[in-house]
Each structure stands twice: as structure tokens, then as C-alpha cells.
Amino acid sequence: MKLLDDKGKVFGLVNIVDLIIVLAILLVATGAYYRFSHQGAAGKTVNVEFEVMLQHIRPDLAQAIKVGDKMVSGSSYTNVTVKDVQIKPGYSINVDARGQRVESIDPYLKDVYVTNTGTTTLSSATITMGGQDIRVGKDYYVKSRDYEFKGTVVRLEVKE
């Protein structure tokens, strides 16, 4: 028995053009089902709390950050919210007259610790919140509609 006969039918049963159309429809339907019925690899929604240290900020500028402020990314609000703000004396390391490194407190500038919280979906090995990657030691821009400061993530807690 021939695979394709004189009339263009596969095994004498189905026209080859019809078979190709049916297979294409099945392929598209299978892809659509998979796309809409399966989540990403991890796809788990978690609460994340992280603390950002803003070093050497003028006291009047530090007062701009308020609990409850929503962070922005570009021109839109994100799901990241300021949970707590602590203003502490500005700490630094300086070199004294003998060339030794010494700890000192700045009499004017402050270190501001901003605790942010929000939810995100873990779908890879990166935690992303408000359009920024969150990792301890990584730079993070604390920015709302009214202010923007560059800081460093100093604490990260994922709550499942």
C-alpha cells in the first residue's frame, strides 16, 4: 500500500492538505492549553520585606520619607510600600593624623534605614520588586512620587 495514492490521499483515507490543516489546528490548540493552564517554573507568590540603608543624608531630606509611601517605577506606582523609617547618626570610617582608620559619627548627616514590604511572584532565581532586583549588598533606589534616594539593601526576608 502506498503512503500517498494518485488522488493525494494518505493511505487512501485522508487528503494530505486536510491532514496538514488538522495537525496545525491540534498543535495550536495544544500550545494554547499549555500556555493558559500551566504557571511558571516556581510561580509562587510571597511576601518580601527588605531594609535599605541610605548613607549620609541631610536631616531635612530624610524627613521626606514617610511610613505608607508607595514606591514608583518609571511613572507608575508599584506594590512596594514603606513599612518603617529609622533615622540614625551618620556613621563613617575616616583616617586620623597617624594614618589609622577610625570610626566616627557625622555631627550633621544621617543614615536612614527604610524597611519596605510588598508581594512578588518567585519565577526565577531573582527576587524582583518595584522593577528592581533585591539582593543584600545591591543598590536600590528608594523613590516615590516626591523623592528619590540611592541606598544599599542590608536585610532581606522572604515570607512564604
List keywords for this structure.
alpha+beta; 160 residues; 6-stranded antiparallel sheet; Elongation Factor Tu (Ef-tu), domain 3; two-stranded antiparallel ribbon
Q: What CATH architecture of the largest domain do you see?
A: Beta Barrel
Count of all domains: 2
Class of secondary structure makeup: alpha+beta
The biggest sheet, with number of strands, parallel, antiparallel or mixed sense and barrel status, is:
6 strands, antiparallel
SSE series: EEHEHEEEEEEE
How many beta-strand segments?
Answer: 10
Cα radius of gyration in angstroms: 29 Å
- What is the CATH domain class of the largest domain? Mainly Beta
* Percentage of residues in helical conformation: 10-25%
Strand content is: over 45%
Mean pLDDT: 88
Counting DSSP H or I runs of 4 or more residues, the number of helices is 2
* End-to-end gap: 62 Å
Question: What general outline do the C-alpha atoms trace?
Answer: elongated
Order of neighbouring strands in the sheet with most strands: 4-5-6-3-10-9
Low-confidence stretches: none
CATH fold naming of the largest domain = Elongation Factor Tu (Ef-tu), domain 3
